[in-house]
Amino acid sequence: MKKILYVAGAIAFMACSTSKEASKEDANVDLAAKYAATITAKDLGNHLFTYASDEFEGRETGEPGQKMAVEYLKNFYKSQNIVSPIGGDDYFQEVPAEWINKNTRRGTYKDTENVVAFIEGSEKPEEIVVISAHLDHEGVKNGKVYNGADDDGSGTVAMLEIAEAFQLAVKAGKGPKRSILFLHVTGEEKGLLGSKYYTDVDPIFPLENTVCDLNIDMIGRTDSRHKADPNYVYLIGSDKLSTELHTISEAMNKKYTNINLDYKYNDENDPNRFYYRSDHYNFVKNNVPIIFYFNGTHVDYHKPTDTPDKINYELLENRTKLVFHTAWEVANKETRIIADKAQAKK
After folding, report:
1. CA–CA dist 37, 34 (Å, integer)
2. Are 242 and 209 in contact, with CB atoms under 8 Å apart?
3. What is the pLDDT of residues 294-308, one digit of tens each?
4. Torsion angle in degrees (nearest 10) through CA of 130, 289, 238, 333
5. Which pTM was predicted?
6. % helix / strand / coil in the chain, to the nearest 5?
7. What would the pLDDT profile of 125-134 be if each residue is shown by its tens digit?
8. 3-state class (DSSP) for residue 179
9. Cβ-Cβ contacts under 8 Å for 61 (sequence gap 6 or more)
């Protein structure tokens, strides 16, 4: 009997020691870097060659190709066991044609949908970090498919890789403290309509609980201004509502990705008006801090030649990692970032 107790005690001691060693090992591992490493150019390319293929017919709002695109996104999240915030098997936030057509002058469209997926925070689940990209493009014109590989296939597949990285952390018991909402919005090309529907009509989570929106719209190419040094990305809006968010963004880049952060278009009065031209702006209007990640326009912008073979996947990988690291830091810091520059609503 004493011998049995001795063996049991020895096993318990060894298990406790192993647990402590594993815990100590975890403490010495940079978890952000560990999970960011799962974001790869190869996986981004595998997604994008499907998502921006001719089969998806340019993902025109409400049309069959766009319906195929949203099914692709839904199936990916299901395969990763990332749940819907709506519940059950419903990953689609329906955006009715009647509402779409009242809010655009760019044509008449059918019912469409945003795609939403959700990772619940372990400590502050009521605080929501949104990562967004638009899922649509311009469809088929004069028999030519407008694939939209960069605009915004690049942002869309970046979100998938970021979601997978976060979910791997969750499976290892290292998930984010705050919740992450992956928001793929429809109808951006028709006037930022999917994001407007989310913020103005049916926010799944209260906007006052929304910590920030990291919006990705075109991060797979280079513009003519950066031919000599393609290791860049334009950041727009990072300092507009939250000094803290801007500081975090700069620090994460310096620590992990070493990209040239170009603020050329950060001026609200820039004639291109990019600050107002992507889905983050509907969050800005509601005093939610944002960062807009953008590579600038290029010769294939809004043309049928914006195809997946022209994407620089190594650049796309590193830019995606910058978004991931920023989201990781914001989601895991002890205190919520402060919107110190928010304007009082009229």
Report:
1. 5
2. no
3. 999 999 999 999 999
4. -70
5. 0.93
6. 45, 15, 35
7. 999 999 999 9
8. strand
9. 100, 109, 110, 112, 136, 139, 186, 187, 189, 190, 193
